[in-house]
Amino acid sequence: MKHTENRILVIDDEADIRELIELTLTRMGLDADCVGSVEEALAMLKGNRYQLCLTDMRLPDGDGLDIVRHIGESALDTPVAVITAYGSAENAVAALKVGAFDYISKPVSLDQLRTLVKSALRCNDDENADKVKGGAMTVGVSPAMAQVSALIAKLAKSQAPIYISGESGSGKELAARQIHAQSARAKQLFVPVNCGAIPENLMESEFFGYRKGAFTGADSDREGFFQAARGGTLFLDEVADLPLLMQVKLLRAIQEKKVRKVGSTVEEPVDVRIMCATHKDLRDCVEKGAFRQDLYYRINVIELRIPSLRERREDIPALVESIMRRLTGGVGPRLDASAWADLSTYTFPGNVRELENILERATALCSGTLIGAADLQLGDARLPGLAAAGEDAVVPGTETLEDLLDRVERSAILSALEQTKGNRTAAARVLGVSFRSLRYRMDRLNME
Q1: Secondary structure, 3-state, 399-414
Q2: How many CB atoms lie within 10 A of CB 251?
Q3: pLDDT in tens, 33-62
Q4: Sign of CA dihedral 124, 125, 131, 136
Q5: 137 backbone dihedrals φ, ψ, rounded to 5°
Q6: Whose C-alpha in 2, 186, 348, 402 is 20 to 30 A from the C-alpha of 261?
Q7: Which of 394, 420, 418 is nearest to 405 (CA)?
Q8: Using only C-alpha atoms, what is the Rg of the chain?
Q9: Measuring CA to CA, which residue among 256, 252, 262, 264 is closest to residue 294?
Q10: For residue 84, what pLDDT is reported?
């Protein structure tokens, strides 16, 4: 079987949709093989191995679930995402139940498509890293990420509910996927749910399913996210956005490990592990009455805090290398000294997700083999006391990347200490890092 790096298999019987998806993938630096039927797809899968398979649900000679099942039964280790019609929750659940990696709804949102593809490729990278490094799947060498990796390994051995906190874009869902992948539930489904994206009037039926005749249009029994995650993990992202009435129902489901479908008179047991996340301060939500205290204590059995990129700046080179390899397959442009200097002074308010977007945009904009500072198009969020690359540029080849980053980091720390008159706690706050992280950095740089 031929292994095709960064190649996606797209199956859709509508030529316009195939062309749109292929164009989007090309702009992401990926290649696509596009076919219009189950038969053609199975033929392509016989001779090639893909990073991701993206298939429509309805096809002329079958449906997307046939392809999901074939890949699962053939042990091809290829994630499959299904395109469902008109936001059909039942089709999405059906796809997840038979082994789909994820799903998107028609009309296809290009932002959602890009996010899905990057997530699939990221999971492939994680699986490869896991095989090589024995489970150390988190990119980075910082003390902060070493702590996260160690805690993930411990949490994977437990079945306790986990609350993952951290800023937007810091990697909360990726951490949840890593816990699931290292756990005894790894062979079952990981079902992610964005609580803020579900209409309130559909929330109960989406979570718990419904019985035939429960409401107008309910022409058959359907299962919800809890049933789809049976035996696996249910990840509730942006859990703080749940309305209070749904919080009550969720609390009971977690406590009793049972759910009642809409329109049913009996409860059915469900075996799922619950992980929750939000970028909001959940304790503050409890104090303001927007989130139930009893539910807070039920889901926050163990808290995993994901550090911001500002707290793990020494991981930026490894992250850039990993992202660029995923975007270009290792054959695309590389960053020059001015780009590295600009990244070194930027605070990344959007964290790792923003870094990915910056590099994706720069890869598309650069005209040659080098990505310069102008291609990054960074904003004004800078570390205190540091100039942009253009004001203090380094001539390429005059110092190593490590020396450059150390020099920039030392300058930032000195500037913050001067600003706070030597108060290290205040300086850490100015730099957006923990006191422990600042102390580690000063020790590493031999700063008195």
Answers
A1: CCHHHHHHHHHHHHHH
A2: 17
A3: 999 999 999 999 987 888 889 999 889 998
A4: negative
A5: -100, -5
A6: 186
A7: 394
A8: 24
A9: 252
A10: 78
3-state class of 48 per DSSP?
A: strand
The C-alpha atoms of residue 369 and residue 331 are separated, in whole angstroms, by 10
Residue 9 phi/psi, 5° resolution? Answer: -100, 120
User: What is the token pair recorded at 267?
Assistant: 């409860």
Q: Which residues contact 403 (CB under 8 A, 6 or more apart)?
A: none
Amino acid of residue 388: A
- On the question of a cis peptide bond just before residue 349, with omega within 30 degrees of 0, the verdict is no
- pLDDT beneath 50: ranges in the chain: 1, 87, 126-137, 388-396
User: Count of H helices and E strands in the chain?
Assistant: 19, 18
Q: Which residues contact 178 (CB under 8 A, 6 or more apart)?
A: 126, 137, 138, 152, 156
What is the token pair recorded at 321?
A: 């290398």
The letter for the amino acid at 394 is V
Mind listing the domains of the chain with CATH numbers? Answer: 1-111 (3.40.50.2300), 141-307 (3.40.50.300), 310-444 (no CATH)
pLDDT tens across 226-279, in order? 999 988 999 999 999 999 999 999 999 988 888 998 888 888 888 899 999 998
Which H/E stretch holds residue 375? helix 373-376
Q: Give whole-number Cα distances, 307 to 136, 183, 312, 329, 390, in Å.
A: 17, 22, 7, 28, 29
Beta carbons of 385 and 419 less than 8 angstroms apart: yes
How many other C-beta atoms are found inside a 10 Å radius of the C-beta of residue 15? 10
State the pTM of this model: 0.61
CB 249 within 8 Å of CB 256: no
Q: Which residues pair with 278 in a beta bridge?
A: 165
The three-point CA angle 160-166-167 to 5° equals 155
Q: What CA–CA distance (Å, rounded) separates 68 from 109?
A: 22
Rounded alpha-carbon distances, angstroms, from residue 180 to 162, 193, 307, 308, 352: 11, 15, 20, 22, 21
For 83, phi then psi, to 5°, come to: -95, 115
Cα 192 to Cα 74, 114, 210, 350, 356: the distances in Å are 25, 17, 20, 21, 21
- Long-range (24+ apart) CB contacts under 8 A made by 129-132 are 130/181, 130/182
Q: What angle do CA 246, 250, 255 make, to 5 degrees?
A: 150
Kindly give the pairing relationship between strand 62-63 and strand 162-165. Answer: unpaired
